[in-house]
């Protein structure tokens, strides 16, 4: 098939499919529903522009950056727990969550 970049989050009451080419969908039973407003053309470029603009504004206005290192460490903990859970097929505690 054709190349696609998507991620499925399988949950108790349905599945979220985050597809970089068409947005986010909610799957329940045998039906997929597109979530309105979840797709942005040129999303990666726009995300980088927003990120760097926010950094510039924080420096210019002498205020904290919107996303700091502590938040970044939490995100890394989530990613590491997800990878570990995938490998062992069981739940893993998120590092630094408590």
Structure explained in plain terms:
The chain is α+β, with helices and mostly antiparallel strands. The chain has a domain at 1-39. 39% of the residues lie in helices and 22% in strands. The protein has two helices and four strands; from the N terminus they run ββββαα. The protein has helices spanning 43-60, 69-88; strands at residues 6-11, 14-19, 23-28, 31-34. It has a four-stranded antiparallel β-sheet with strand order 1-2-3-4, with no helix packed on it. The protein is flat. The N and C termini lie far apart (43 Å). The mean pLDDT is 91.
Question: What's the pLDDT, averaged over the residues?
Answer: 91
Helix share bin: 25-40%
Oligomerization state of this entry?
single chain
Classify the secondary structure makeup into a structural class: alpha+beta
Q: What's the end-to-end separation, in Å?
A: 43 Å
Number of helices: 2
Major pleated sheet: 4 strands, antiparallel
Query: Count of DSSP E strands?
Result: 4
Strand content: 15-25%
The ordered H/E elements are EEEEHH
Please state how the strands of the largest beta sheet are arranged side by side: 1-2-3-4
Q: Which parts are unreliable, with pLDDT below 50 for 5 consecutive residues or more?
A: none
Radius of gyration over C-alpha positions, nearest whole angstrom:
17 Å
Shape: flat
